[in-house]
């Protein structure tokens, strides 16, 4: 295996460990065992557990942005309700297509590891800021609306729907969540 292929294999193992056993279970030994290689192979590509976790988060953040980045509302472009509809579609489709990635992102967001928690929160804050900017630029939203708080509510609904799709897909299937979020956006954005 080339170093790049081995690196991807090891990062796949990290994702599997996070998904099945949680962030705290990731160690250089666990990754080596999961990949069927020796510890020196893992240490040849990553300096320590923090390095391999950071690399995994970098990769999954990049892939998550590839899935949803193009659907993030752009201030002043088109109807804001349609823009949020596109974000809903892209986000739910991303969670549905890559549940392991999104379970890991949710676990990292909930983890007690401050550096990793901060990274996910930073990404969420940027999304909320972009949503607020889109709301401010929309002619559908008047000056009496607290757009910052509305953006937080929209984000919370979207994030919560993603979590429900992952943990209770039989009760909250994709189509039910999609329909509910579209109704929510239509109700809260005048």
Automatic annotation (TrEMBL):
<protein>
    <submittedName>
        <fullName>DNA-binding transcriptional regulator, AcrR family</fullName>
    </submittedName>
</protein>
<dbReference type="InterPro" id="IPR050109">
    <property type="entry name" value="HTH-type_TetR-like_transc_reg"/>
</dbReference>
<dbReference type="InterPro" id="IPR001647">
    <property type="entry name" value="HTH_TetR"/>
</dbReference>
<dbReference type="GO" id="GO:0003700">
    <property type="term" value="F:DNA-binding transcription factor activity"/>
</dbReference>
<dbReference type="Pfam" id="PF00440">
    <property type="entry name" value="TetR_N"/>
</dbReference>
<dbReference type="GO" id="GO:0000976">
    <property type="term" value="F:transcription cis-regulatory region binding"/>
</dbReference>
<dbReference type="InterPro" id="IPR009057">
    <property type="entry name" value="Homeodomain-like_sf"/>
</dbReference>
<dbReference type="InterPro" id="IPR036271">
    <property type="entry name" value="Tet_transcr_reg_TetR-rel_C_sf"/>
</dbReference>
<keyword id="KW-0238">DNA-binding</keyword>
